[in-house]
Amino acid sequence: MNVRIGNGYDIHRLGEGRPLILGGVEISHELGLVGHSDADVLTHAIMDAMLGALALGDIGHYFPPTDDRWKGANSLVLLDLVNQLLQEKGWCVSNLDTVVVAERPKLKPHLPAMQDKLAQTLQLAPNAVGIKATTNEKLGPVGREEGIAAYAVALVITID
Ligand code: MG
Fold first, then answer.
1. Against a cut of 0.90, is the pTM above it?
2. What fold, for 3-158?
3. 10 alpha carbon to ligand 1 midpoint, in Å?
């Protein structure tokens, strides 16, 4: 069995009139993330970690913001496409570990739903998808609630 590791990072601005979608789950909040797709920062970090494990570039290469096909796209659909790309190359995700950095809203009540959505999309057991939420202790742009950031690590293994 071959094993690879990848990491991903993403940040999106918070703005009015947008839904807040994290890990494919819509969370009630007065602000949402701004972006070309649904701006699901957690799912974006995960895709970059998966692509990075195989040195396949980043999501900007596969889903450029200049391409109208991805305008308002559900990031779980993009995640499924990235997973298919890995599988075509003979690899699959073993497990993920992630961190979402947001000052507000409280994400803890939503973590199990996010874990289920991501695990379903990737055909993984929920316990193969780690999601942690933390604040930035009011420091910097995330601390001032100007945006939400996410980090992800993916372990990728060859399909037997
Ligand atoms: Mg992004």
1. yes
2. 60s Ribosomal Protein L30; Chain: A; (3.30.1330)
3. 5
